[in-house]
Write a structure and sequence with these properties.
alpha+beta, c-terminal autoproteolytic domain of nucleoporin nup98, 6-stranded antiparallel sheet, about 30% strand, elongated, nuclear pore complex, protein transport
């Protein structure tokens, strides 16, 4: 029995269950999304034949994990451990959902998000204080 809010399932595009084995071998720009939480686009071609994507990708508010179990991550460039763009929702400033008071405050906070992104060896793309959307790119996980 599950308590609390039900977990929102991942949406995988394209729908891998509808693809033939030959199509699963070369899925282009695979996207994994958890509605209202975030998404990851795995760039290039991914061989999805032996990937249990739902168990390998964990998206939660403010958190993204690919290969959450230690020891299962393949070398960079293989499987899902590849160049990807991550878009996280609900990443609000510390004062909550409200907008920061002025443009300079918003820019300062955006700068903090940029620095935090780069500290994690990711490439900052954008952050919007008014929508809580943070977008960045990683070379691998």
């Amino acid at each position: 029995r599950q308590f609390g809010r039900p977990r929102i399932e991942l949406v995988i595009t394209p729908d891998l269950s509808l693809l033939r084995e030959s199509e699963l071998r070369a899925v282009s720009e695979l996207e994994v999304c958890r509605p209202g939480v975030g998404s990851i686009t795995f760039h290039g071609v991914t061989d999805c034949r032996r990937l249990d994507v739902e168990s390998l990708v964990h998206l939660d508010v403010g958190e993204v994990l690919v290969y959450p179990v230690q020891g299962l991550k393949p070398p960079p460039g293989q499987g899902l451990n590849k160049c990807s763009t991550v878009c996280m929702y609900q990443c609000w400033p510390p004062n909550g959902r409200g907008n920061l008071e002025d443009t300079s405050s918003r820019e300062r906070y955006k700068g903090k998000i940029r620095a935090m992104t780069e500290e994690k060896r990711a490439r900052f793309i954008d952050y919007d204080c008014s929508t809580g959307v943070w977008k960045f790119q990683v070379e691998h996980f």
